[in-house]
Design brief:
mainly alpha; 78% helix; oxysterol binding; receptor; GPCR_Rhodpsn_7TM
Length: 279
């Protein structure tokens, strides 16, 4: 009887977290799709060819690919069964990480360019952005899909459960490195950005809100906030997850899925662009 009661409790817990995942992904899908459509229309009307426009277009493409995977995730969490094959499962699972780190890279590029007041020629920006896309499409993605979720056997009706591979030495090292890089970069940029905003505010006080320089730096801080809200919780939890992982601990697995779902909230950034928070 105690064992039966424990199973029912775990089932109820799983259903509640699945409901949370469904709500999060529905919000991301609706808001993200609306933001992508509205931003695309705005870019077409402006027909701008600035450096910032090139990076925003890259973010639009990234978010679009991410949004295309969300209906598959919703289907799985609603039906409780994966119906799209093992490769599609690995692709949808891997892309959430590709999207997160690629988006973070573009955010860092925008922040650094604005902090250093760098002015790049459009052709140079297009070249390095194109190089990032080629590197991701021709090298990183194929390598990731060749190894991700392949070292263990998994139930074909289940998906997003490649957790048993996390205790392999190379996976532990890779995860700690990614956590260290993102947290360090984000912490450094946060301190630098806040220092710059403070100095500009002191310089132009009390008419600080009217100054273009202050508004530009404040808008750059938006990207740091997105990283702090969407990406940082997942990476902090990731350390705890690695250290406390147990194969039979489904609660940790579901919590990890919640934090992963939170990373896709960055797809809502386009709505903030439209609202004038960033450009």
């Amino acid at each position: 009887m105690p064992n039966h009661s424990s199973n029912n409790t775990l089932l109820d817990f799983s259903e509640k977290l699945h409901a949370v995942l469904i709500v999060l992904y529905l919000i991301n899908l609706a808001g993200g799709t609306l933001g992508v459509i509205m931003m695309s229309q705005q870019l077409l009307q402006r027909r701008s060819q600035s450096v910032m426009t090139i990076i925003i277009i890259s973010l639009l493409v990234l978010h679009t690919f991410m949004l295309l995977t969300i209906p598959f995730r919703l289907s799985y969490y609603i039906l409780g069964e994966w119906k799209f094959g093992r490769f599609a499962c690995r692709l949808a699972s891997a892309f959430i990480y590709l999207h997160m780190y690629a988006t973070f890279s573009f955010y860092v590029a925008i922040i650094v360019a604005r902090l250093l007041r760098l002015e790049f020629r459009r052709c140079y920006t297009a070249t390095w952005v194109g190089s990032v896309w080629l590197l991701g499409a021709l090298v990183i993605t194929p390598v990731l899909l060749s190894y991700y979720g392949t070292s263990k056997s998994y139930n074909s009706s289940k998906c997003f459960q490649f957790h048993r591979e996390i205790q392999e030495a190379h996976m532990v090292i890779a995860n700690y490195c990614l956590v260290g890089i993102l947290v360090s970069v984000c912490a450094a940029l946060t301190v630098i950005q806040l220092t710059v905003i403070y100095r500009v505010a002191v310089k132009y006080w009390p008419d600080v809100s009217c100054q273009l320089e202050f508004r530009a730096q404040a808008k750059s801080f938006f990207f740091i906030l997105v990283t702090l809200v969407c990406f940082m919780p997942h990476h902090v939890f990731r350390v705890y997850y690695i250290q406390n992982y147990l194969d039979e601990d489904h609660k940790l697995l579901l919590y990890n899925e919640i934090f992963l779902a939170l990373t896709t909230m960055c797809c809502l950034d386009m709505l903030c662009f439209i609202a004038g928070i960033a450009h």
